[in-house]
Amino acid sequence: MNEFSKAVAVAFQLVLGLDHQLIEIVSLSLQISVLAVIIAAFIGLPLGAAIALFRFPGRMAIVVFFNAFMGLPPVVVGLITYLLLSRSGTLGTLGLLFTPTAMIIAQVILVTPIIAALTRQLIEDLWIEYEDQLRSLGAGPGRAITALLWDGRFSLTTAILAGFGRASAEVGAVMIVGGNIDHVTRVMTTAIALEVSKGDLALALGLGIVLLTLSVSVNGAAFLINETARRRQS
Amino acid sequence: MVSTSILPLQLDNVSFEVRGVRLIKDMSLSFPAGPRTAIIGPNGAGKSLFLRLCHGLLKPTSGVISWATTEDLNPSDAQAMVFQRPVMLRRSVAANIDYALKLRRIERSERIHRIDQVLGRAGLHRLKSQPARTLSFGEQQKLALARAWALKPQILFLDEPTASLDPAATHAVEEIIDAIHAEGAHIILTTHDLGQARRLSDEVIFLHRGRMLERTPSPEFFTQPRNDLAQAFVRGELLWWNLGKDNRKNKLKQSN
Ligand SMILES: Nc1ncnc2c1ncn2[C@@H]1O[C@H](COP(=O)(O)OP(=O)(O)O)[C@@H](O)[C@H]1O
Ligand SMILES: [Mg+2]
């Protein structure tokens, strides 16, 4: 057996044997990304809807800003967060750098624009369809927001899953603000980068398998949600 | 129940323009409570715009639209409108009506009562828990009427309510409109179905190119419209209608 296939075999052993180190890294990753996405959804959904429904000065600039942030490289987001949290930064006194909290903050910054931008697009389209009817029933943009978010629930879930995909797959931001400290801030992507550079392919591959499974599940879930929505004509 | 009336609805010199193009021109008229009004006219005459102006969905560019002042009733709470294409929320049939009632701050027990009542009357009771978007087009239009009915409006605007329905569904919708009227709601509907205008109206307003050319009690309108364009419209001589003003002049010259 060559070295590569040996590594693959060990990787599967680690995954199937629920290796302690692997579980620790995976669960920290999930905790950070899930929490970040939940926070980002709480900010991004109402924010995106508000931008879609209200006209105010600077609105166009915000739309452009979010669209630009959607494609921002994670390392840049990491850098921005680093500057914010470093000793001399605005939030430096909190001492958050190289903690899981810092990683959550970075991922929130990374994911919120995605959720906000997709929400804006979706709610804007829905409002075109619903405006006359909802205004007639007595709901202006302010009161319509919850109904619109609810009616966009299938597509919005897909948007949130897209955010989760980006958060769990990125390496640049969590590396910079987390520092990849063993047992503290080491997540799947940073661990893979480290193990590969050390030449320890087994753990890297094991984590890669988990990450791949996760990504496939998330995309599968998004697909199923869209299919359900289509079947229900909604 | 409402104790005070927001009618008459009064329009004074109402015009509506989009980017300098006048789409509704100098409309002055009043709608007292009572007679059902059919607004007819060719496509693009401004029928839908007129309804949306009256209902407050559009603001006139000039002129004033006003309702009778009542003590404690907001005019917009006493109106309802049914659109040409029904818009249903992605929730159940009953929940669609419930949503509208909640917006009017009607309390829960009364909401449940009204939902049952209008669904029964509209023949939709067995579809109560079904997602509204899975209903057929005709059923959705009935639901739109039931939802409007549940609001107990003093005035109900209907924009071509049967435009894309088959005869059976059209008949069902017309019966519901009749019932809503019988309960005291003033009806203003647009239609390009002359038979429907005849069946459902007490008076006819004939619109053409954003102008009101005639307003006449229905029996009279359908036997003897005063306006020559209305005459042509009633007789169905409209194939040349949308070709433009110049064409029409030529045609009129030829026929003279
Ligand atoms: N938002 C708008 N912008 C520009 N033109 C419009 C707009 N809405 C309606 N119109 C035009 O106004 C005219 C009247 O429209 P409408 O009221 O829908 O006619 P209809 O009598 O068929 O209901 C049409 O020529 C239409 O193209
Ligand atoms: Mg129309």
How does this model look, in words?
With 234 residues, chain A is mainly alpha-helical. Chain A has one domain (20-233): Orthogonal Bundle (MetI-like fold), CATH 1.10.3720. Helices cover 80% and strands 0% of the residues of chain A. Chain A has helices at 3-16, 20-53, 59-70, 74-85, 100-137, 141-151, 153-169, 172-178, 188-198, 201-231. In chain A, helix 1 (3-16) crosses helix 10, helix 2 (20-53) packs parallel to helix 5 (100-137) and helix 2 packs across helix 6. The radius of gyration of chain A is 21 Å and the shape is globular. The model of chain A has no long low-confidence stretch (mean pLDDT 91). Chain B has a six-stranded mixed beta sheet with strand order 5-6-7-3-8-9, with helices on both faces. The model of chain B has no long low-confidence stretch (mean pLDDT 90). Chain B has nine helices and nine strands. Chain B starts with 8 loop residues before the first strand and ends with a helix. With 256 residues, chain B is an alpha/beta fold. The interface between A and B is medium-sized, with 17 and 22 residues.
Q: Examine the coordinates and then state which fold CATH places here, giving the name of the CATH topology of chain B.
A: Rossmann fold
- Assign a percent range to the helix content of chain B: 25-40%
For the largest beta-sheet of chain B, the strand count, sense and barrel status come to: 6 strands, mixed
| CATH top-level class of chain A | Mainly Alpha
N→C terminal distance of chain B: 56 Å
Report the β-strand fraction of chain A as a percent range.
under 5%
SSE-based structural type of chain A: mainly alpha
Spatial order of the strands forming the largest sheet of chain B: 5-6-7-3-8-9
In the CATH hierarchy, what is the superfamily of chain B? P-loop containing nucleotide triphosphate hydrolases
Number of self-contained structural domains of chain B: 1
Any idea what the radius of gyration of chain A is?
21 Å
| Element order of chain A: H for helix, E for strand | HHHHHHHHHH
CATH topology name of chain A, in short, is MetI-like fold
Largest interface: A-B, 17 and 22 residues
